[in-house]
Specification:
This protein has two domains: 4-136, MutM-like, N-terminal (N-terminal domain of MutM-like DNA repair proteins, Alpha-Beta Barrel); 152-261, Helicase, Ruva Protein, domain 3 (Orthogonal Bundle). By secondary structure, it is α+β, with helices and mostly antiparallel strands. The chain is built from six helices and eleven strands. Helix 1 packs across helix 6 (204-224), helix 3 (152-159) crosses helix 6 and helix 5 (181-191) packs across helix 6 (204-224). It has a five-stranded antiparallel β-sheet. A four-stranded antiparallel β-sheet has the order 2-3-4-9. A two-stranded antiparallel sheet has the order 10-11.
């Protein structure tokens, strides 16, 4: 599932390859992905406009235009952004290439929303599972501060309260935006914090360490290609062991998500 690093890579792809291009046509016929808009409504707002800026908070992207419309994009569970022959976002599964780069292994039939530019290029939301979302003028009011940018004091206030497990707290998008299941496990392992520790019991020092490790894990994942590149992630399996000390990992459900941790180092 795309988390903040994958979405940031998709945003950067738009910023690098799609800005300054004028939209000639829009395919917004998928009523599920484009809900609540009727077919043609997004096209009417965007046709003839030029993309000017690409932004992100947490897992939500939006692209400004030189018209009044703002295009919101959410990758859902398996979405990718495709610009011409390049794609980024969720990793393709086995046997599922990026279409433009590897024939039709990842067919354009999975493109749920498409902008065609006047220069002949295109931008698409490619989503096999059809769980992504496209909408005009997205509402960001329910999102907390971005996990990659939140300051120390804001992080302490947002995360360090309540009785919820710290993993559930940092995955609450209204508290901190952008942290998903894998990034949460990687971050808590790096910070040596047990995922079930009540968030309100963490000390200021532990919260600061958690924030530092979250930012470091996020930067590393963006640079290396996604959250799957984390050091703990390959060990999240039944016979997995802590990459630091070799202790067998433990598993439970926290906040409704399968969670792995080292019982020796995370307390």
């Amino acid at each position: 599932m795309p988390e903040l690093p994958e979405v940031e890579r998709a945003r950067a792809l738009i910023a690098d390859r799609a800005l300054g291009r004028r939209i000639e046509t829009v395919d917004d016929r998928d009523e599920w992905v484009c809900r609540p808009h009727a077919p043609g409504e997004i096209a009417h707002a965007l046709t003839g406009a030029t993309l000017t800026q690409a932004h992100r908070r947490g897992k939500t992207m939006w692209v400004q235009t030189d018209a009044d419309a703002v295009l919101g994009l959410h990758l859902g569970m398996a979405g990718r952004i495709v610009v011409d022959a390049a794609a980024d976002g969720d990793r393709p599964g086995r046997g599922e290439g990026d279409g433009d780069q590897s024939g039709e292994a990842h067919p354009r039939g999975w493109d749920r929303f498409t902008l065609r530019f006047a220069d002949g290029g295109r931008l698409a939301l490619r989503d096999k599972r059809r769980l992504g979302r496209v909408r005009l003028d997205p509402d960001l009011s329910d999102l907390g501060p971005d996990a990659a940018e939140v300051g120390r004091e804001a992080f302490r206030r947002a995360v360090g309260s309540g009785t919820a497990p710290v993993k559930a707290r940092i995955m609450d998008q209204s508290v901190i935006a952008g942290v998903g299941n894998l990034l949460a496990d990687e971050t808590l392992w790096r910070a040596r914090l047990h995922p079930m520790r009540p968030a309100g019991e963490l000390t200021a020092g532990e919260l600061d360490q958690l924030r530092r490790e979250l930012r470091a894990a996020t930067r590393s994942a963006i640079r290396r290609g996604g959250v799957h590149t984390g050091e703990l992630i390959p060990a999240r399996r039944r016979d997995g062991a802590c990459p630091h000390c070799g202790t067998p990992l433990e598993r439970a459900t926290v906040g409704g998500r399968t969670t792995w941790w080292c019982p020796e180092e995370q307390r």
